[in-house]
Write the structure tokens for this entry.
Amino acid sequence: MEENREMVFQVRTDLALEEKERFPGDGGEIPGVVLREWKEKDRNVHLTEVVIKDREGEKAMGKPAGTYLTLEAPDLIRKDEDYHKEVAAELALRIRSLMEQRGIFKEGKCVPSVLVIGLGNPDATPDSLGPRVLENLRMTRHLGLEYGMEFLEKNGYPALSGMIPGVMAQTGMETAEIIRGIIRETGPDAVLAVDALAARSVKRLGVTIQLSDTGIHPGSGVGNHRNSLTEESLGVPVFALGVPTVVGAAAIVHDTADALVEALKREKATDAYGTYLESLKPEDRYELIRELLEPQFGPMYVTPHNIDERVELLSYTISEAIHGALFG
């Protein structure tokens, strides 16, 4: 039972940053994991790089080996065009750097071919980030087919293509099945998958961006496990870019548990309950909350009241970051 509880506790978040925060101290002692944090003061952006190096790190973090870069930009919730441009510029640098590390921009090959996948359901706003980003991108692969790759190289354009695979309920097909067919036909150098994520903390909704080179598991953040999109499954490097737009109701209650403990301990009649909650490990406390909530309400996920506005702003910011990374 203890092993199952740990699994449930970890599945609450898609963010490597939040997995790192489960550990005491600054997380630098996690076996098989290298951490680096810094702040771009000019842009009010805090960055955290989590590199999972081996199986020991995978086991500790509950995620595949690779690089996970998180940008925390608290002002993304505001309609500040200049700030969104600054975040887009910073994210563009990070996308470009991660792709260069994986050899996507090869010497002698000025025009990489990148397939962008907009994961999610365009009809469900919290899950529509991927499709909305695709709507804002300037596709160029067709220009290379029409005028030749020399045209793209002359203008410094990548061979950029994209598609929105929809969700299984709409297509009757696994996302990975659709993408594998497209890769066979078009032969991209890399895939960039954009998706909405689930977070453990409300404060990260819409203001945290995660970039990784490990691929993606569509729907895994809300317990909907599908065929993964990875280099192993698709045959080309897969980069993942996502923003958390939902948080589990049980996680929200868990975040307020410390305040609840203090309130219970203030009254003699409820002090024993407060002491009991305080004695529980975080994963046990979360499991208790989940067991109390889900029989009544089911596995609920919560999103901000202005999610329409947030997703619209973020879709432009991320699309501009992709343009900056690929077009230069």
User: Anything to note?
Assistant: The chain has 15 helices and nine strands. Residues 1-11, 219-225 have pLDDT under 50 and may be disordered. The CA atoms of residues 181 and 234 lie 9 Å apart.
